[in-house]
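We modelled the chain as a single entity of 230 amino acids. Its sequence is:
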Amino acid sequence: MEKKRTEARSAPSRSRDRGRATRRRLIEATARLCEERPGAEVSVAEIANAAGVFPNQVTYHFGSKDSLLLHAAFLGLLHDARRIERIGRQAPDAAAFRRNIARAVLAMPSLPSVARALAAGISRPELAPVVDQHLQLLFRQSERFVSRLIDSRGWGTRRPLNVEARTFWSTALGAVLLVRAGAHGTAADLDLAGSLTIHDEPGGQARSDCRDDGQSADQRPARSADRDTR
């Protein structure tokens, strides 16, 4: 009797494990197909075949192909972001870091897939929570990376790290969406490096360009040379 109860309790656990494994295979297979065929349409049948599952497993586990494509696109983006972190760690100074990171991000193979997934999220409001979940993960991963890097290098930023990460990725993803929407131009027209405020300034967050009274550096009264030399 005890053995039957134990088996009954373990059955749902095994089912959940199988379900998670199937979801993972579907996401990884979709990400792989999207990377191999950037810009091409991938069918449910192709995804299922690559993952070794039945086509109806796509809708069972994700609700729709768009939802699966969104998960897969962000999986590819997170993997690309981790690879780009290695490029960032090799930069000799903050200026090289900004320049190298911007160039590498704009060349990421996952960006077109993410742009398509975000476009689908705009047209499908039910996918908004999935988009938000993955974006928050991307922002946190980038924030942790930059935090460790500037601490080890003694660099600083002109704004909080969470704002730094959001601003950078919003600029990069926005640029890709504009191109996808038909805007003319190339990566050379975008100053993505300029969206980063990381500088070779020792000790934590750099001085802001604005004081508490809201005046910018250009608006502050100039001090006389006499007072500066006192």
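As a brief sanity check on the tokenised model: The chain is about 65% helix and 0% strand. The mean pLDDT is 81.
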